[in-house]
Amino acid sequence: MSNRRKMPPTAVGAERFFLRLLQFRWLIIAAALGAIGLMGSQLGKLTKDTTPEAFVPDASPALAFRDHVEDVFGLKDPMVIAIVDDGRYGVYTPGNIALLQWLTDQVRTIEGVDPDRVTSLATENNIVGTADGMLVEPFWEAIPETQAQADAIASQVQGFPLLNGTLVARDGSATLIIAELLSEQDAEAIYFKLLNLTEQADREGLVPAGASLHVAGQGAVSGYLSAYIDADASRLNPIAAILITIVLIIAYRTLAGALLPNLIVVGTAAVGLGSMAAAGVPMYVITNSLPVILIGIAVCDSIHIFSQYYEEVANNPKLQGREAVARAMAVMWRPVTLTTLTTVAGFMGLAAAAGLPPMQSYGVFAAIGIAAAWLWTLTLLPALLSLLSPKPSGALKPRSTGRPDAFTRLMELAGRAVASAPATTLWIVTGLFVLALIGVSRVEFNDQRIHAFEVSEPLRVADTEINQRLDGTYYLDVAITTPNPEDLFLPDNLARIEALQAWMQAEGGFANTTSIVDYIKEMHQSVNADDSAFYALPDDPFLIAQYFLLYTASGEPTDFEEVVDYDYRLAHVRGQLQSDNFRQIEPVVLGLKSYLADTFNNEAIQGVSTGALDLSYSWMAPLGSNTAQGMALALGLVLLASVVFFRSVVLGVLATLPVAFAVLMVFAVMGYTGIWIGVGTSMFAAIAIGLGVDFAIHSLDRLRSLIRDERLDYADAVVALFTTTGRALLFNLLALALGFGVLMTSKVPPLQDFGLLVAIAVTTSFVISLTAMPALISVLKPKALFGANRADSSKPVSVANLLLPWLLVGVGLVGVSTQSSAQDADQIMAGVDQRPEGQTLRSHITLKLTDRRGRTREQQTVSLRKYYGEDKRQVLYYLEPTNVRDTAFLTHDYASPDREDDQWLYLPALRKTRRISASDRGDYFLGTDLTYEDLKRQNKVSLDDWRFSHAGMDRIGRVDVHVVEGVPVSQAVAEELGYARARWYVDSETHTIRKSDNWDTQGNLLKTAWFDALRQVDGIWTVHNIRVENHKTGHQTELIVSDVIYDLELDDGVFEERSLRRGYRP
């Protein structure tokens, strides 16, 4: 006689279905493994995005405006190296200054770092007043050898307010090297290169005693965060997997019970993460926990299948392989499907409610992975299991053949206790509920990005050290807009910006601010004998315009691009804060917005808050309410799904209560332990729902079967629940709690919190599902369980009805040459130098200056030139626009190499003529991309400065050209010119240069010049168009030459320094 246990009526049809399905098991295995392999092959495409911008929707106005401001002013999140020294002289010692110079030079050579956007005291210029105006010069030309020389540098820096608090600590204890990246994609690699550089400095003895080096900055946080979390997870995840496998071995004591669930886990992760990679969606900071969630859910499904399978084998020893598997699947497919659907509904609800891309991705791809876990559990797992001969588990024995194992006995005792005291159980849970509410009231919504790192992590130590000593590396900025070009020369507008900065520092909570106003006041003081009484805004717009022109006489054209745009219409005020703690920055952001709207803005000038902290506020502010809404929606969908599938509102509510209580307990623990609701913890509600619903659904479904189908009374049903499904749920709990508990040993604080809160969530769901829920059933006696107490009292839900929601979910997811000799080169370049130019020349030159955004500034000039034997004199007068009119540049170019050329610059607003030293000939001329030497030579080259070599032939347009390369004759000349190497493309027929390339002293391609529109004028080959492109800054200069007249009469007095004041007289 067969000792088979009678199947519940609702499972009979399902058993026949799975028996038929298993006839195609090899096809199922092949198809499943093929699909897993295909999705797994996509994992190599998976990218990461750990930047704060990842949380901002693409359509965000705040993001669009921030990007616009960054584009206008060339702003990027930098990395910084800090030198810290608490000694008597701080960082102002010969050793520290030598270290600063060495680090600056080395950082500039790192691939991926923009060498022109490396900023330190070694790159910044001092503005010094002189008898003829102002001089922009480095703080040192050579490394100081004595402390007295270092003290002189300290005195200069401390007298330059713009740098104090921003680039060097006000007490001199720290200074920064700030590096901007060419691409944020290289942030991780560059962070490690900077770390290696600091270690190299230490190994080579370059770090003085008492000094220390630190690497930090917002760029460093973004670059290192992904690697930091990955490194920690790669250490902990294998441990978690091993612990879960050990739990499976203890639960079933069989090899199949330990290995096959792991295969389902692999398949689940492959689909969940592979679909993310295939869709081009990156891994975000919060989605780092997604693989762990998928592992947990996949393991839980497998545990229930194996528990039922071994129970069938134990109770029916004569069952064949397919038969045993089909019977197990017939009983478990329904609760597994119910738990999966409710979990998918919860995650899809969170995705729908979330306004932030990472959370939307989390919800969608968690749902896809969970759906994959369900599919593999109901197809691949039974197909593989059916290949094995049914063997009973040593841990699961029927009472008729022996004593149950310790876990079964433990669960039986617990079941009898719960069944005998439902009222006591409910009172205890009520007490916990009250305590939980108190804890929830203490929960704080807050976030601080640097807290993703352990307190002892060098990057966090560096961040703390730097922000304690300087005025802050966190920026909240104001973008200033005026209607017309050069409106920012108007004193009234500048005064409003000055008042804004004063409010920001006095009342707004800012540690420091910087704007174009500070530079203007510094220049005004410098040209007035450095008298501090003149550290104020001038009241003459023409004088202000002339200050900028005077600065460009020895500064570079891009020196002000971070604070003012090319047309002097847009400005940028940078505000510094020492922390990005949300609760601290929230009142600062709101206060700034209020001041701008109520006090600052008028028709002539407008200000809008922007920057990294403003952007963070824009998406952090609604995160708290979005989290609550998403949680409510997820619970609502879980409730709805439960009501539909249990066909009872009461049972639906009962199935949802353990999950809701688990969420409540998670937030209560957060309140009592001080864990913030922030970016890293905002998804814990989803995790609690996703993992917790398993316990409630399985418990309730089993109770319904025991009470309604097997006609057990309440007490016996509860004991039977504990010893069967309860035992499986216990191992679910052990697997999840141990697996996630390992994360509490993580070096990443958010992962520590993650491990703690998930362990609490699953433990609470387990306990409430097996205690409070049965106790409530005892009190409420819902008719859906106790009504008719007949097997046919409830119409079974068909497979088609259960699969219909999957179809709807699926539709929703779908919605989602040979060389010449050096002599040849010398001859070629000599031919260029000897090309006839006429005795005298007058020409009109239009200068078009174009910034990297394509905005153009146009200037009109007239050029006069006259030869005196082999010596040459040349003067350039500015005619337009008004702010540069009557500015003049005069050169006396002497043929003798032993005589230094003379150069003068006349600035009419100051009524001063400034002599330009020949050593400054590599400086950029008045905001152009031409140096003084370039402007003086134009289409020629000084033969005394270069060693030439012939590099072959090339073609420019339709013209064959000689390629001549040159290197400066000495390092000193290279430093003067600003070039380490050059290449000229020479037309030997006309002896003109058609193109040139120049490399900077670091070996980087600096700029390219094209010499076009070559025509003969009075028999002399004349270039009518010169176009220069700076490859680093994106800045361009074009010279359009017209009205060329050779050999005209020119008065010698025009070329005298004293004549510059008279201006150009046609």
TrEMBL record:
A GO cellular-component term linked to this record = plasma membrane
Record SUPFAM superfamilies:
Multidrug efflux transporter AcrB transmembrane domain (SSF82866)
Q: Which InterPro entries match?
A: Acrflvin-R, MMPL_dom, Mycobact_MmpL, SSD, TP_0789-like
Q: Which residues form the SSD domain?
A: 263-387, 651-779
What protein am I looking at?
A: Outer membrane lipoprotein-sorting protein
TM segment ranges: 21-40, 236-256, 263-286, 292-310, 331-356, 362-388, 417-440, 628-646, 651-669, 675-697, 718-742, 754-777, 798-816
The protein's GO terms of the molecular function aspect are:
transmembrane transporter activity
What topology does the record note for this protein and the membrane? Multi-pass membrane protein
Cellular compartment(s): Cell membrane
